[in-house]
Structures are given as structure tokens and as C-alpha cells.
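Annotated sample (chain length 115).
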Amino acid sequence: MAAKKNPKTAATTKPTSKAAFVRAYANLSAREIVAKAKEQGIKMGEPYVYNVRAYAKTKLGRRKGTRRGHAVTRPITTTSAAESLLTALAAEIGLARAIEILQGERARVHAVLRT
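Output written by the structure step:
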């Protein structure tokens, strides 16, 4: 007959993964985490701690709705929006001046493309 397990000791000796151990001590340095793990009989090195932390950061970045980094200006993608902006510009500064600006920009782009 098999020996029965004591339910109290089974609950207190809950196995913990190495990664969970590292995440539990996020406020400690890698060296301190390795020392604490060694006290509890868990073998790991400092590179392992750094890998777990790096992986946790990438998982955080994948959350829905989370944007990281700087905002990027987007070019005008629709023709109608670009045309309406050009029309408003021509109305504001005058058609002759708007044509001069466009011709200057065209010449500048051609000069860049030739080099």
C-alpha cells in the first residue's frame, strides 16, 4: 500500500520554476538573485537572470494598445487629402507663389536624384 501524502507539507513545498523565482525578486541585482537561489538549492547563473528579464520585457511590449518609442510622422497617403492641402496652400499664398514653390522643390528633387 502506498504511503499517503500529508496535505499540509504538499502545499508548503510548492515547486517554483527558475523563471518565476527570478521574476519574484525583480528588485534585486542578478548577483543577489543567484546567491538567493543557491541558498534554496536552485542552480542558475547571472546570464540566466538577464535572459529571463529580457524575455519579460519583450512580453510586456506585446500588450495590446501599448506603444513604445517615439511617434512617427506619417506622410499624406490619400490623394484627396494632398490635393485639398495643396489647394488650401495655393488659396492662402496665391497661385503664382505656390507654383514657384513647387517648381523649386521639383528642381531640388531632380538635383538629388542626379547625384
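Annotation: The chain has a mean pLDDT of 79.
Annotation: The chain has two domains: 16-61, 79-114.
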